[in-house]
Design goal:
The chain is of the alpha/beta class. The chain has twelve helices and 15 strands. 38% of the residues lie in helices and 19% in strands. The longest helix is centred in the middle third of the chain and has 19 residues.
Amino acid sequence: MNILFLVYHGFSEVSGISKKIRYQVKGLRENGHCVHLCYYDYAANGHRCRFVDGEVLADYGSGPLAGFRQRTEYGRLLDYCLLNGIDLVYARCFQNANPWLVGFFRKLKEAGVRAVTEIPTYPYDDEFKGFEWKMRLGLKIDQLFRRKLYAEQEAVVTFSDAEQIFGQRTIRISNGVDFDSIPLHAPVAVAEAGAPLHLIGVAEVHPWHAFDRVIAGLGEYEATRAMAGQGRPPVCFHIVGGVHPAHMASYFTPLIERYGLQDKVVFHGQLFGDALTAVFNQCRFAIGSLGRHRSGITVIKTLKNREYATRGLPFIYSEQDSDFDHQPYVLKAPADESPIDIGRIVDFMAHFSMQPADIRKTVEHLTWKIQMQRVIDSLMLSVE
């Protein structure tokens, strides 16, 4: 199959989303499909451009009108699809439904080109709470046109359990992993009684990750540990990824100062490659999302859970995820605002003996090659 993978933004070396998209493309190609990656980014001269496979497809120039053009001009992309025999357009939702995008997919449909859109998190409206007005205005436009947009497509790809989204049928898959890119966890030291327990949380931090629940729980744990003497180990929480200054000021700094955790919470910023692996290997337990309820999500198959399991770390999260809810290396947290019980994690790790390689084996069925082929198989079945 000749596939155009359509992304409405650019890429970053440290972005988990960027890595995920490239692994999805790789997974499709491993199944024998010809895949062209289309994305929007800035050229070397500062112009806003749409690229296909690294080559400029459309140059929108610079300035305010260029931003408008890239959201409304899809003629050259349509021509590319028709001239190059594209069979399927696989798009990634950017909450950007508008009349011009609806028209683009309508013309594809009329020409016999099939299309699906992946919606990474659903529902997503509550994720925009507290965002600047421009982003909230964009969401309002999306809300007006998204049902019309998906009516012009074959299906919505989702990592939720929803059977329909915005009036369209869904293809339900799991977030996948790329085993070639994720090294197996190799702890730097053997755990000993009384040695510090290091936790790691990796994310472009948003309120729905709720790392503040970990910090609050750590504060309570350290207070009780100090009263009880030296019977329990100290715990340190490593946060890897970007943290917006407003989020730091409202969620993290007050808690760190209240509990005196300046030496127990470490912000590493964005890391990747060997630097990221070095921090992972210092840690023995990972923190998934603990606040999806804040954005109205109950069921989701997050990428981070799968990456933790692929590395071979035990972890905690609060949503429903059928791939992991009953695994022996997982702790479930309540989906509420209570501080995380750090003592429970300490006790769990004191008796945990599962090896990283054994954890990794449990997710062998979650490779992107298998997950992306599930999308293709569903589309093929719908034709028969």
